[in-house]
Amino acid sequence: MADVVADVALPNVLEAGASAMLMYRVPESLQADVQPGQLVWVPLRKKQIQGVVLHTYRREADTQPRHTLRDIVAIADPVARISSIGLQLARWLAETYQSRLYDALSLWLPPGVSQEMLMVWQLTLAGMHADPGALPEVERAVLYYLQKQSDTPEPELLKALKGSADRIKEACMLLKERGLLTTRTTSSRTAARPRYEAYARLLVPHEDLEQTLAQLKRASKQQAVVRWLAEQQHEQQATTVWAQRAAPQWPVRAITVATSASVAVLRSLEAKGVIALEQHEVWRDPLERTMTTVEPAPPLTAAQQAVWETLATAMAPTDGQPPVFLLHGVTGSGKTEIYLRAVAHALQQGRQALVLVPEIALTTQLVRRFAARLPGQLAVLHSGLSMGERYDAWRDCSGVMPGSYG
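RE: above sequence
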């Protein structure tokens, strides 16, 4: 019988100067989901760490194995998967610049998804009722803190007690031996995750609106919310956008600001069946702060036209290696217009485009220009963005949006 196994690159260095790559068995429950490039949780010694799957393949199970393969525990993030091209480039980077393979692979992972398993200290039943005063100083401080704060990850405990980390860890182990503490593990929070926002939509038909308002006559805040939602709905009915929106809805934040109603008021209306409250993912798009007007492509000069015709011909689909061009021109000669047309042409062919900016100081100016020509087709990545914005931009570049600019 054959096992499905995976080679997994790990962030740890098991030997001096060597990148860690270990083999793990893929349990049957994960075989449909574990693919090359996937970020997974695997056991290493007495803890769990994250790793990147490099290969998966079948291997005949050894009837008398010298070393039993350990199982992959779980997929760390279903979105965090490196493409086959990314895996090849990461290997090239690691070999060319003599870096750890995992460090090179991490460049292709979504920003902020790295996690680690944390030890959480918690009280036993005996520890909940124990008298801290009868214990040595450090043990007393640990027990007193946990009786006040309950379950606490070890890094938070060390930070809160502000003593010697080794002495605090030793005290925790002694308390565990006394039967006053026990441990469990949990994963740390990711630095970036999808952002969700609460929305509300009115469930009352227009013909029943007055009756609903009459039933709410003793709840003025609830009346104000229903009236505001009805007014917004009426305004949208007069626009062409309305035909494309079967269920109009508005952010809860906008409703509370407009009506001075609390979220509790909205929950009361939800319980009465007057509105529905829903959570929807909100994309953090830095381009929302960029005011642009859509611009048509300008006519080309004779020199630009000659260059563009050569590039357009070369961009035709081919099975061979595409040619590489170096565009030479002084500042103001019109090179950016050629870049714009090349990107637009690639998008029309269903392909992607990556534009690299030589310095961050030029980003604002160039983003405005690209956004004016390619509205709704850009994702921006640079160090000036928040972790959440970079996380969403990474997902855009991974297939949600056809174009990428960074």
